[in-house]
Amino acid sequence: MGRLAVFVGAFAISCVWAETRGAAADDGRSAELLVAARAALGGPKLDAVRTLSASGPFRRIVGDREMEGDVELDLALPDQVKRTEHVGLPGGPTMTRITALNGGEFWTDTTNRGGGFMTRFPGTDGRGPSEADRERFRQMQQQRLERELQRYQLAFLLRSAVAAAYSGTAQADDGTAHVLDFTSDSSTVRLFLDQGTHLPLMLTYEDVMPRVMLRQGRRGPPDAAELERLRSEPPRKVAFELRFDDYRAVDGVKLPHRLTLGASGKPMEEWTIERFKVNPTFKANAFAKP
To answer: Is the per-residue pLDDT at 35 higher than 70?
Structure first.
């Protein structure tokens, strides 16, 4: 739990941004800032990126427990992504979970080792999820991954299918950031760019909080009490903050090698990227369901 306390403390004292202020008519400011940010990240080399992969260890907080594992992320623009997580609890079970988009096709695969690990969005009867529940959950997973793909493209490559709008500046103890809003379908992703370096510092957005139930050492469906508790807690949207740090050049492109994710001001996850590959060549079926 010592490392967990360090993680929580580091997140709490890292850049806390004040309310956006000074918003005014865009007047081309958003385009100007994006040009400067793309130049800071690599200019023509950034524009030439079509595929990207990243891998490294992560830590995740679930309740009062800390989970550790490794993540492999593969991107092929514009509409392919595969995220592979190998995760476990100290001395407990382990799990490998793959979620992927191959164009319009979504698929997922999970392998548990060492007993029951977790249950997400269980159904409404004592025997577990119904087919309707499974399809509803599958659609929610696909929509979540589609939004994640859009955020990855914006965070790493400054690419978005929607136009940016200049929203002013935000202030923290260690500097000032320009703020750009990307709004679609009544949802806004807010990008913070360092005023001096023009590097992306953070994305903020609203999304549904995943509901995860640890069930270490147990098999089978959740019992009636567990189901009733989850039924009484409908999915809720919260404010997420995804922060970027430790930029390094990889084949002429600057990429963040540490990402921290929080929700409503509380830390959730830290990912240390040990290896990036710029424009890797994927096999023809790399994103297809096996």
So the answer is: yes
